[in-house]
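TICKET #2291
ISSUE: user wants both folds in one file
ATTACHMENT 1:
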Amino acid sequence: MKDVMIIANPSSGQKQAEDYAQQAKEILEANGRFATINITESGDDVVKFAQEAARETYNTIVILGGDGTVSLLASSLKDEDYRPEIAILPTGTVNNVARALNIEINLDKAVKDLPNLTPQSIDAGLVNDQVFLSLVSTGTIPESVFEVNEEEKERLGPVAYLVEGIQALNEQKSYRFSLNIDNKVDEFELDLLLIGVSSSVVGLTNFFKDASYNDGKLHIFGLKKTTLGDRVGSIANWIFDTEKVQNNGVLTVDAKNIKIELLNKDVSTHVAVDGDKGPSFPVEISVLPNYINVLTPDQK
């Protein structure tokens, strides 16, 4: 059994991934571990290295990347007989997975924390055949995320997504969905639909109140079609209401499985999976309880 494989994605968010990979190797080896570094040039490399780590039974994968890279790594291990534990050094724009797990966002501190982290078993989601660790989304706001270019991400960070999201709220466009939620079917006209596996959405760590990464549930939020003022009010009330009382403008429910069909026949669109382009409709999403062990700070 080999020990630690460090996988660094230099194209994610912060560009110092290779430097931090070397720092991680040094601090791990100073604490009695043995680490190798692999630098990726594409998503295919993340898959290749992760599967190599699984098949050669590495103890740990340290991944430097954003939410999309972390979920790609998790998805690449779906069919492996053995899954190494993973440690996350967040170098993305939002880093929602890391925030939900209380992993340090400051990279200098995150690297120093590595020897003191402990494994926590977490759930994942499965959308069609793709694993995700954070969020599946669809609607005008998620579509706007794809308008954010790499330069804006580097310059503005999460604010770049916020700017595009506010502009998208002003659009008079919604979709009609058929939602089969744990075998109960209904239709909704929605501007936004979110399905998460933790409490955190785009860095808002209490978006789904009382949700956790190991509760065995999907957490669903829909923003219903209304006037612009009502849409803004509904989502603001939800974000800032610590009790998360459902109002008439939103749909919220927990589930094990959801099947989503787009009923607008003249529209071709797709879901976003942890900020990256995902499959087109229809989609089926389910929870994968205790999918993988992630190294996190002591939760006490």
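ATTACHMENT 2:
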Amino acid sequence: AWQSAVGLLENMTRSEIRCDVVCLGAALAALAAGSEWSRALHMARQMEEASIPPNVVAYGSALKACELSRGWKQALSLLTEMDEKQVKPNVICFNSTISACEKSARWEWALEVFWQMQLRRLTPDVITYSAASSACEKCAEWQWSLYLLDDMLLRHIEPDSYTFASAISACQKASEWLVALCLPRPDTVAVAAAISACEKGQKRRSGLAWRSASALLAELGPRMLRRDVICNNAAFSAFEKAQRWSHALALLETIPTLEMGLLGLSSTLAA
């Protein structure tokens, strides 16, 4: 725990044992794991005062603390400070900064850091793309989310399930549910996002939306994918909005009582 790490440093100081960058870096990592970004920043300042210049590992730990605490402004400030101190940020530093922006739904800044990373000739990885795509998804910036997915594929970086799900969800939030259906659905998470997009499409009274939701549910079995409560509830909601009570009841009969969510039950009754 970070309290123990800080306690050890204080004991070293009282015993007049000089701390080096390794000791302070380890303490910063503990603070990062505890989301204690303000303490991490304070410790980074203490390193400078003690004539121990923070290295890329120390800055990376401080940036991780900012990410976990949604401190996007502090993360951007630290990234700028690294340039001023002539400490070259690595991919991990940029990923933490992008994730900090993502967690605060600051998609413009997430993309700005993404571009800065490439200007430095650093190669983004799947974490970079997933964080940037998630930032766009939170703000329904579906075109940017699709751009990031396309850029990943062009670079031969294998997207993970959450990258696909973020792109689909971005389309769903922007009411571009037909676009969402054109995207790959490698697992249950992505399929659930696509069904949710259909549910959103049904709000616009599209007769195709509830049929698409039904088809997406049907594809889970042959693909050996688990049908979870999120998939079921999204389908129930689409059937309810289309007033397709028979489909809602048919789905209800296939679900064990313990797995029935409150939303699904209320949607079935409403249909």
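RESOLUTION: both attachments delivered.
EXTRA DETAIL ON ATTACHMENT 2: The first helix runs from residue 2 to 14.
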